[in-house]
User: Which sequence fits this backbone?
């Protein structure tokens, strides 16, 4: 069976996509990834390689012609690439098309709708993913026409299905979570050895990721825990926010104990170096950074009203869920002061992530593919 995976930009920067494609290729599927970017394809993280059988088609790759490259650099800025993707579909004749983002769906269907089963991935909470297309009048009609072409929506958690159905009540939706790499015991966090370190792995961003909440909470308790530090790992794209975080740390006198570390290509070493994963995000679909921390055996701290975080954390068993900043601060204090509690919660976190083992999730994808192809025939 041939699967065409459409991802407009930054293909190799998306480690989840590489993992997903590799898992399917290892099961014997013929995988073709179609993208459209003039920029060089990103580098894979440490330990990540594309399966040799996977073909990557870049519809707007640089050529040896300077004149043609001027045109390709310019046309990359154009909003619609649907005709180029349609020709890929005609030539490849896939059995199923998987669209990574709604933008990828628009590229696939706007020139001419292919008569092939279409799966639309929903990488986030449906209200967030669909809201920016369906709540704005100038986008709504065309977006709805494109979404009508979807055969199946893939939501990340069972609780998200009702949210998808609120937008598309007459279309099929299934729940398949993100695959979480299973970490061998010898590579997991050793919580018997206290490092006195809290980490947060996420892009540094104010409205969704909210690093300032964790810096504030740490600043409130740091005086009682000498030697402890906080590291914020992730892409830094907002210099003004970086300055704001440093000001919060300075206000609490912990400037020398709060570090913005940037992006790491060896995130496993980051998890292993820590004792606690603070995760004050306001909204998540199914954060792999969060789930990976649990798979490595870190106890986690999040908020009770954060989607997916409030389902992956079982309060009091593999981490804590807080109601507000004050509660978050006290839960952080509790974790920092009790190594036995951290070890118990970390062990439970590793156990709980077994439900998201890649082989189990690929089984679900296979079942979906075969149901679509059998129905289509």
Assistant:
């Amino acid at each position: 069976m041939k699967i065409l995976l459409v991802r407009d930009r930054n293909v190799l920067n998306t480690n989840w996509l590489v993992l997903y494609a590799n898992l399917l290729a290892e099961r014997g599927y013929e995988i073709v990834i179609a993208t459209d970017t003039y920029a060089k394809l990103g580098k894979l993280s440490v330990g990540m390689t594309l399966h040799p059988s996977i073909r990557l088609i870049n519809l707007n790759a640089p050529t040896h012609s300077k004149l043609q490259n001027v045109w390709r650099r310019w046309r990359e800025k154009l909003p619609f690439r649907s005709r180029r993707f349609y020709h890929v579909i005609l030539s490849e004749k896939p059995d199923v098309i998987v669209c990574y983002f709604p933008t990828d769906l628009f590229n696939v269907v706007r020139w001419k709708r292919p008569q092939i089963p279409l799966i639309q991935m929903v990488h986030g909470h449906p209200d967030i993913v669909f809201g920016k297309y369906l709540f704005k009048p100038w986008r709504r009609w065309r977006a709805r026409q494109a979404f009508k072409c979807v055969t199946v929506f893939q939501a990340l958690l069972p609780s998200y299905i009702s949210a998808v159905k609120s937008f598309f009540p007459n279309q099929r939706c299934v729940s398949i979570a993100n695959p979480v790499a299973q970490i061998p015991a010898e590579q997991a966090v050793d919580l018997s050895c206290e490092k006195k370190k809290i980490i947060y792995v996420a892009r540094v961003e104010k409205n969704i990721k909210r690093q300032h909440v964790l810096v504030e909470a740490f600043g409130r308790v740091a005086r009682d825990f000498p030697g402890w530090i906080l590291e914020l790992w992730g892409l830094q794209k907002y210099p003004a926010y970086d300055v704001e975080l440093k000001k919060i740390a300075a206000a609490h006198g912990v400037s020398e104990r709060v570090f913005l570390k940037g992006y790491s290509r060896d995130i496993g070493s980051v998890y292993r170096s820590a004792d606690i994963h603070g995760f004050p995000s306001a909204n998540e679909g199914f954060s792999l950074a969060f789930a990976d921390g649990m798979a490595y055996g870190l106890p986690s701290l999040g908020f009770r009203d954060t989607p997916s975080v409030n389902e992956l954390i079982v309060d009091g068993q593999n981490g804590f869920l807080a109601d507000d900043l004050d509660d978050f601060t006290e839960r952080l204090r509790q974790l920092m002061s009790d190594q036995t509690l951290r070890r118990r919660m970390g062990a439970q976190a590793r156990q709980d992530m077994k439900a998201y083992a890649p082989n189990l999730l690929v089984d679900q994808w296979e079942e979906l593919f075969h149901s679509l192809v059998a129905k289509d025939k």
